[in-house]
Amino acid sequence: MVTILGGLLWVLAATPVAKPQGEMDAALKAVKTGDAKTRKDAYATLWKLGVRVSIPRAAQGAESSEPFALKGPGGLACSRPLWTQLVRRIDDGNGGSTEREVVAFARDRDSLPPEEEVLDLPPNAPAILLRESGWESTRGCDVGGFADPSNKGLERHPAVRKALQECCAGKQDCLGEGWTQDEGCSNQTLDAMNLALEQHRASAANTLTTRLRQCLPAKDKVGPGQDPCELADSPRCARYQECLRKVSDDSLARGTGTLDAELALWLEANIGACVARSRQGRACTLIVVDPCQGRVGYRCSDEVIRELQVP
């Protein structure tokens, strides 16, 4: 099912009294007259000063927004506006649900591209992805169930390898370099792994949180209520996944032939990394528009400041 919603845009250039007005005016002037590098630095300054293009939510049930004219703030004000339109799509499928919001720009109202074309963000489209969230299917991250164990590398752990060897003893073509092709031994080993995971889940989760905190910078919070990969392209998510890999590798190096708490920790780290890879979360925030020049400065969740040039 695909649903498209819309909303209006307006520029919020006002900042608290405590913000230095002179610094903001200088940055706006640099946006108007500076070269590409100067403009990028100016966008960064405006971002720090709290200048934003504010985007209100659409009314419930609305199918599409009316195009809206942006005239620009302060020194960027222009008699010829930049036309904008915000569209939203929700895709529901067997692999999960994804929500996407995109804003498109044009010099003339009649030049705004079709909504579906905007949502697909073709190359060089005069549009910016504002938000994307959702999941690909995470069922493959589990141990057993819908997960295919043959390409997950589970047999690398000495306890898992030992369990497979014991089950496959005396069976021809049961165990090679990777996972067993014997369905019975596969199910038996997965059941044993899941049992160990359930028995030690609480302690494994606590140990994982502790080791992640030791690995991550203090500003990156982990634990209950935290979602490091809400924005999957963010540096925070990248650091989180890198630390999960480190915890996993360290745990694997300590692994023994026993289906114990260390195995549970290794599985928890691998499952967490898999789930993080399945996230779809990106966001961009519009900083300021220069309608006369057809430029939009914006910052995304990867912490990169960019500029859109509207033809």
Features:
alpha+beta; two-stranded antiparallel sheet; single chain; 10 strands; 36% helix; 7 helices; elongated; disordered N terminus; 311 residues; 8-stranded antiparallel β-sheet
User: Strand portion, in percent?
Assistant: 15-25%
Average residue-wise pLDDT: 88
Shape: elongated
What is the strand tally?
A: 10
Spans where pLDDT lies below 50 across 5 or more residues: 1-18
Helicity range: 25-40%
Structural class: alpha+beta
Determine the N-to-C terminus distance.
Answer: 33 Å
With helices defined by DSSP (H or I, 4 residues minimum), what is the helix count?
A: 7
Rg over C-alpha atoms, rounded to the nearest angstrom: 26 Å
Topology pattern, helix = H, strand = E? EEHHEEEEHEHHHHEEE
The profile of the biggest β sheet is:
8 strands, antiparallel
How would you explain this protein's 3D organization?
Strands 1, 4, 5, 6, 7, 8, 9 and 10 form an eight-stranded antiparallel beta sheet that branches. A two-stranded antiparallel ribbon has the order 2-3. Helices cover 36% and strands 23% of the residues. Helix 4 runs antiparallel to helix 5 and helix 5 crosses helix 7. It is of the alpha+beta class. It has seven helices and ten strands. It starts with a strand and ends with a strand.
